[in-house]
Amino acid sequence: MADVPASIPQTAIEPEFGPAAERPGSAAADRAAGPADSGPRPDLALPPVRRVRPTDAARVRAIRLEMLADSPLAFLETLADAAARPHAEFAARVAGMSTGTRTAAFVAEVDGRVVGHAGGQAAHGQPGVSVVFAVYLSPDWRGSGLLAALVDAVAAWSRAAGRPELMLEVVVGNDRAVRAYERLGFVDTGVRVTHPTVPILRELQMARRA
């Protein structure tokens, strides 16, 4: 799964801020959800997308809390747990994602506020695959084309790291999210897995070239 508003998918992910049980083919804990993004709107000029920096900790924390409030089923962490977590832990997490080839996060910022976020992590046990996770757009930016820009940033990082494939997971029945990712070139692999925190839910896996 990934972290996008409930209107979109999610992706099995890296251990976010705590331990997460891994399963074959996934990196472990968050999801890669994505808001409905039907393509560029002429009334919005897209902000640039860049990799996070250590100095972004407060801004990333703010959008993390927004994600959890907007789409609680898309994450293993609860809003209450995240709000109670020391800022130093967020800062260390952001610093870790600001460099290197194993995990990364990308953001789009407007007037000092992060309005879009997407992460990538090397898939457990699959050397050529990056898992897309923590995909989220603030409501005003859904349908703007920003989702594509964020995923493209993850894809470019993945290629540079020698991983030519992207993978994510979407809750079965979240057709809006599936369509949004299909527009970005993802296809259903046919793999179905049990949701890690809500066992009655299933997730479908989607993949594309980075």
Automatic annotation (TrEMBL):
- Which superkingdom heads the taxonomic lineage of this protein's source? Bacteria
The reply on keyword GTP-binding is: no
PANTHER family listed in its UniProt record: AMINOALKYLPHOSPHONATE N-ACETYLTRANSFERASE-RELATED-RELATED
> Where is the stretch described as Disordered?
1-50
Q: Where is the N-acetyltransferase domain?
A: 47-210
Quote the protein name from its UniProt record.
N-acetyltransferase
Keyword list (alphabetical) reads: Acyltransferase, Transferase
